Amino acid sequence: MLKRLITIAFLITIAGFAASFLNKQPGMTTLEWLGWSVEARTSLLVVIAVGIIWLAIMLDRIIGVITGLPGRISGSLNSRRQEQGHQALAIGLVAASAGDGREAMRQSKKAKRLMGEAPLTDLLSAQAASLTGDPDAASRYFETLAEHRETAFFGKAGLMRLEAERGDDNAALAIGREAFALNQKAPGLAKALYALEAQHGHWEKAIDALHAAARDPDMDSKAVNRGFATLYYKLAEDDQHHDRGDGAVLAHLNKALKYDAGLPPAVLAAATLHHAMGKPRKARNVLQAGFHHTPHPDVAMALFDDLGGDEAALSKLIKITDQGGNHPDALVDVARLAMGQKLWGEAKRLLDMVPEESRDLKTWQVYADLAEHAPKKSNKDKDRDAESAEWPQQHYALTMAAKAKRPTAWQCSSCHGVAEDWHAHCPDCGHFATVGWR
């Protein structure tokens, strides 16, 4: 306000100085036109000319305001419609994210009426149609989105999801690849494509998709590593099946073990191949690393045989088990091998090292088998009787086995189904790279 008053005062002052200056100027001006003659002071004519120019400017502005009034009114109405349309679009997207298909559809129709055809309104309509159980309408909307360069990725991603829901995995895979080619930085689509590629046995393409999916911070790093290990192991199987040479097979096995050093099938395959190539030390290193990481009975047996398969080998295996932290499964596996060597006392010592809270069904079953070889009681040998008393009775071991937790087995992390052997795809739910020794 103060600034405006200062400006007005300044203009009035300038006008006063200008009027005083013009009033002091001498001189007359004579105008003759069509027989008329007008004589006036030159300063007055200057003031009149300035006034006429100012009036012309003001008149032009008034005419501009009047002629532009309909446009401004129309623009104001359009702006209001756009604002209401964006509000409806925002509410619709929130409703879609909350799973309210009816409200999302109502808001999408309102947004389309206010804003006309637009990519975002088409996207909302597609989501609403999908939520309300109208896949055909959703498909039409997604196809419309796929036709425009700016929204092609979203349209194809939506079509991929619809085809997967319909059970047409081949169509979903084809469309998913098109969407992935448009945008390889969308972890959600990459994760779905990874599952489809793996389901169809396209291991290399699945690896590419998994690399993109792994960018998602919510992805479990262990699941990602297990996925890569399984994919590279399946590539090694393909190499072997198509006779591509030991070098190609071993390269893929090494990559599998890089991501999961304890994947038993990869460990056993790599060790076998190293032996076939005349590299026993590398075979032993692979088996030892695998046994430390995942103490599986087959790996324990392979390592025991590699060490010589005798009492000396058992002694080395016990030392390796100790270096690996005496994992309960490792202790039970080595105890079984000790029983195979008829080293009953050593087997019991190893079993006794398993913490009581970690003793599962398998541990107590081995205890029950071991009870048959407990020292016999003798009234003449007190030391032997004391030793015999320390051995668990078979009936007690079997009773504890009945109450113990289930043993480590091949179990799916998705459906928790138990399988007898390792599978790349779970035999029960079909998920890829979810079966692990747990």
Structural summary, described in words:
The protein is mainly alpha-helical. It is built from 20 helices and 5 strands. A hairpin with a 5-residue loop joins strand 3 and strand 4 (418-419). Helix 2 (42-97) runs parallel beside helix 4, helix 3 (101-115) runs antiparallel to helix 4 (119-131) and helix 7 (169-182) crosses helix 8. The model is unreliable at 381-388 (pLDDT under 50).
Which secondary structure elements does this structure contain, and how are they paired or packed?
Layout: H1 2-23, E1 28-33, E2 36-41, H2 42-97, H3 101-115, H4 119-131, H5 135-146, H6 152-166, H7 169-182, H8 187-199, H9 203-213, H10 221-241, H11 246-259, H12 264-276, H13 280-293, H14 297-306, H15 311-323, H16 328-340, H17 344-352, H18 361-371, H19 382-390, H20 394-403, E3 410-412, E4 418-419, E5 435-437
Antiparallel strand pairs: 1-2, 3-4, 3-5
Question: Which structural class should the secondary elements be placed in?
Answer: mainly alpha
Relative strand content: under 5%
Using only C-alpha atoms, the radius of gyration works out to: 43 Å
Q: Total number of helical segments?
A: 20
What spatial order of strands do you see in the largest sheet? 4-3-5
- Residues in helices, as a percent range: over 70%
Tell me about the largest β-sheet. 3 strands, antiparallel
Shape: elongated
Low-confidence stretches: 381-388
Element-by-element helix/strand order? HEEHHHHHHHHHHHHHHHHHHHEEE
